[in-house]
Structures are given as structure tokens and as C-alpha cells.
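explain this:

___
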Amino acid sequence: MSGAEEVAVTERLIDTTDEGRFELYRDDDLVGWLYYTRLRPNRYALRHTEVESSHQHQGVGSALARHVLDEIRSREGTVTAICPFVADYLSRTTIYADLIDPRHPGFPDRAAAEAARAKTGD
């Protein structure tokens, strides 16, 4: 196979409700997950994103955020961005602006989320 050829990777998102996290699989490998708390009415507090160390710097975090936000949109839900990565992702695009809960938006960007996390010691 030449360097110009690319192998198609299949991504799928699984909502593991008993663990309160969305999991992203590339082919059959679990590559990242995003912890959430589901609140009423159909609001998701997106709390923490993790990427397997062997898959870091490969766009997994962004792919995970995109898949999760698309899934929440399909459920007609809203989000509260607590996770610094998600807050940063949302601050760089307007595509998902309609999903941000107007009464409980969470943090507007990574700096605000990280400052709050440092203040609480999490």
C-alpha cells in the first residue's frame, strides 16, 4: 500500500448509561470517552473527556465531541459545558450553539472551565 492510500476507519459512539459516559470506538478499539450527567429536562452536563494515551493527538477528542453533540442534537437535548475540552470545542464553532442550554450554559471556554476546576480542587 502506498503512503497516499488511506485506510477507512469506522467510528461508532456508544452511550454507556450505567457508567454515565459516551464511548468512541474506532474500528473495535475504545479510543475515548466523555463522562456526562443527564439532567431534566433532557439536559446533559458534559463533565470530562478522556482519550486513550495510544490515540492522543489523532483527533479523537474532537471526533468524540462532534459525535456526542450530534447524538444529543438527535435526542433534542441541550448541553451544559463543564469539561474544559468541550468548552474549548464549543467556543471554536457556532455549529452547536443551539445545543447550549441558555439557562445553564456551563463555561464559555477552556480557561474559565480550568479556572473553576482549579478553584474546586477537582
Observations:
- The domain at 11-120 is CATH 3.40.630.30 (Aminopeptidase).
- DSSP finds three helices and five strands in the chain.
